[in-house]
Amino acid sequence: MRGSQTGRPIMALLDLLGRRWALRVIWELRDAPLSFRETQARCGAISSSVLNDRLSELRAAGIVEAGDEGYRLTGEGRKLLALYPPLDAWAERWAERERDRARGDRLGWVS
Questions:
Q1: How many domains does the chain fold into?
Q2: Pick from 59, 62, 54, 93: nearest CA to 79
Q3: Residue 60 belongs to what domain range?
Q4: 19 part of a folded domain
Q5: For residues 3 and 14, is the Cβ–Cβ distance under 8 A?
Q6: Longest CA span, the chain
Q7: Taking a C-beta distance cutoff of 8 angstroms, is the pair 94, 101 a contact?
Q8: Which of 34, 37, 39, 87 is the one with CA 20 to 30 A from 47?
Q9: Sequence-ordered list of residues with C-beta below 8 angstroms from that of 31, at least 6 positions apart, any chain
Q10: How many other β-carbons are positioned within 10 Å of the β-carbon of residue 47?
Q11: Do residues 9 and 22 make contact, with C-beta atoms less than 8 angstroms apart?
Q12: pLDDT by residue, tens only, the chain of 111 residues
């Protein structure tokens, strides 16, 4: 399994999702199917070759599929997308802790 010398599926998933633009592509497909060009426009600075690579990898993983209307999330892709809000909540708490720590450092508090 790519991304995991141990063969652990979570490590392979984290490898896939950690690739440039992978999470963003999933996010942009959350509402409706998009053509290649629409996906590229929504992702801003993504090159066509990187987008093509990410879409191919996400298709191979069963997260994205191509249809007549463009690229869309599969059922499994939607289940993965449902995990974003808890991660976002954790990230917000983490960012707040980091801001508090940085404020304390500026004020000379001991961390």
A1: 1
A2: 62
A3: 9-82
A4: yes
A5: yes
A6: 60
A7: no
A8: 87
A9: none
A10: 12
A11: no
A12: 455 567 788 898 999 999 999 999 999 999 999 999 999 999 998 999 999 999 999 999 999 999 999 999 999 999 999 999 999 999 999 999 999 888 887 777 655
Asked whether residue 3 is assigned to any structural domain, the reply reads no
Query: Is 16:22 a contact under the CB 8 Å cutoff?
Result: yes
pLDDT at 92: 95
Structure tokens at 87: 């991660």
pLDDT at residue 79 in the model: 97
For position 69, which CATH number holds? Answer: 1.10.10.10
Per-residue pLDDT, 89: 95
Q: Which two tokens stand for residue 92?
A: 């917000």
Residue 44 domain-assigned? yes
